[in-house]
Design a protein that fits this description.
Elements lengths: L1 H7 L6 E5 L2 H4 L7 H8 L3 E5 L8 H4 L2 H13 L3 E5 L7 H7 L3 E3 L5 E2 L5 E2 L1 H12 L16 E2 L7
Parallel strand pairs: 1-2, 2-3, 3-4
Antiparallel strand pairs: 4-7, 5-6
C-alpha cells in the first residue's frame, strides 16, 4: 500500500493504523504495528478504535502499552498518533504519553461524532493539551483540529 501511495502521489506520507480493539475484530494487534509500518516504509502509526461504541482507546489498552507503542515508533523514527473516543477527561493521560498527533472528533462536535465542529470545544481541548487554564481566548486565531503535542505546540 505504501508503494502504491508513493506511485500515485510521490509526496504522500502513509500512516499505518491498528485498532485498540483489534482482538474483537480479528485485526493486527497494535503492538505489531510499528515494526510492520517501518518495514513497509510508512511515515507513522496510529492506534484508533474500530468499533464506535463509545469505549475509548484507554478502555482497550493500558497506559504502559501505549507508552511502549509510542517509544517503539520513536525508536523507528515514525510519527505516532492516538485516537479512539478521546475526550477531555483523557487529556492528562495524553499529556503524559505525548504522542505526536491526537485524533479527536466526537468530543469536539456538537451532537457527537457526526455533529458539527464546535469552535469553543476545540479551543478548550487545545488549551488543555497545551496546559493552559481558564476560559478560551476568543482573540486567538483559528487553528486546525489536529493537535501536535511534541514540543508543546498545537496546530
Amino acid at each position: 500500500m505504501v508503494a502504491a501511495a508513493r506511485d500515485t502521489a510521490p509526496a504522500a506520507r502513509v500512516i499505518a493504523a491498528a485498532y485498540a480493539d483489534a482482538a474483537v475484530i480479528g485485526a493486527l494487534p497494535p503492538r505489531c504495528l510499528p515494526a510492520v509500518a517501518a518495514l513497509a516504509g510508512a511515515h507513522g502509526c496510529l492506534i484508533d478504535t474500530a468499533r464506535k461504541d463509545g469505549r475509548s482507546l484507554f478502555e482497550h489498552l493500558e497506559a504502559r502499552d501505549l507508552a511502549r507503542f509510542i517509544a517503539e515508533c520513536r525508536a523507528l523514527r515514525l510519527i505516532c498518533g492516538l485516537a479512539g473516543s478521546i475526550a477531555m477527561v483523557h487529556v492528562p493521560r495524553l499529556r503524559e504519553l505525548a504522542p505526536d498527533v491526537v485524533g479527536v472528533r466526537g468530543a469536539l462536535c456538537a451532537g457527537g461524532r457526526n455533529g458539527r465542529l464546535d469552535p469553543l470545544r476545540l479551543r478548550s481541548f487545545l488549551d488543555a493539551l497545551s496546559g493552559r487554564v481558564g476560559p478560551p481566548d476568543r482573540t486567538t486565531r483559528r487553528r486546525s483540529g489536529a493537535a501536535r503535542l511534541r514540543g508543546g505546540s498545537a496546530a
